[in-house]
Amino acid sequence: MQTIKTALLRTLSLFIVWWALTEGDSSGAVFGAVVSLLVALVSIRLFPPGTYAVRPGSYRLRILGVLSFTGHFVGNSVIAGVDVARRLLLPRLPVDPGSLTLTTRLPEGSPRWLLANALSLMPGTLSVNLIDDQLELHCLDQRMPVTAFVRQTEARIAAMYGITPPDDSGAQS
């Protein structure tokens, strides 16, 4: 029964990817469904359900957490991009660059690296260094609530990986 559920889930997941890649064009839906089913069956043959284990230090992604983080990332990237553009186009708007060192609450490995890289991709912040749990950031305006923003991003990443970071502020200047 587990194999059938896994096959259906994998087939559906692959078909959704197929549908997105074809931009919802229904002319290839039957072909996409057949290919999705075949690929799912091959994947079950190669990776049977329950035969793989999560290694210590590795994390399983939570789909709702991924969606939440993606929305947070895209939304804040747009908002921050508009803010940076306004500061460049309107010189009267304040710019007070500086650096900030925070103690990240995320565990070592993928969660920390994702945090550092996500912050570098968002306008107004740049990850300068990540050593152990110390994250050094450059920010466009020190008066902005950078620490609060980093904590929000950490919380989204933690939810994505299904982990709970300790509740400490960890801010240093």
User: Class by helix and strand content?
Assistant: alpha+beta
| Tally of DSSP helical segments | 5
User: What does the average pLDDT come to?
Assistant: 85
Number of strands: 4
The succession of helices and strands, N to C, reads HHHEHEEHE
Shape: elongated
Q: How would you classify the quaternary structure? A: single chain
Which strand-content bin applies to the residues? 5-15%
Helix content: 40-55%
Ends apart, CA distance between termini = 56 Å
Kindly provide the radius of gyration, computed on alpha-carbon positions and rounded to a whole number of angstroms: 21 Å
Reported for the largest beta sheet, the result is: 4 strands, antiparallel
* pLDDT < 50 stretches: 169-173
Q: What order do the strands of the largest sheet run in, or round the barrel if closed?
A: 2-3-1-4
Domain module tally: 2
What is this structure's SSE topology?
Blueprint: H1 2-21, H2 29-46, H3 63-89, E1 98-103, H4 110-121, E2 125-131, E3 134-139, H5 146-161, E4 171-172
Antiparallel strand pairs: 1-3, 1-4, 2-3
Helix pairs in contact: 1-2, 3-5, 4-5
Describe this entry's structure for a reader.
- By secondary structure, the chain is α+β, with helices and mostly antiparallel strands.
- The protein has 2 domains: 2-46; 63-172, no CATH class.
- Helices cover 54% and strands 12% of the residues.
- The protein contains 5 helices and 4 strands; from the N terminus they run αααβαββαβ.
- Strand 2 and strand 3 (134-139) form a beta hairpin.
- Helix 4 crosses helix 5 (146-161).
- It is elongated, with a radius of gyration of 21 Å.
- The protein starts with a helix and ends with a strand.
- Belongs to the CPA3 antiporters (TC 2.A.63) subunit E family.
- It is a multi-pass membrane protein.
- Its main location: membrane.
- This is Multicomponent Na+:H+ antiporter subunit E.
- It is found in: Cell membrane.
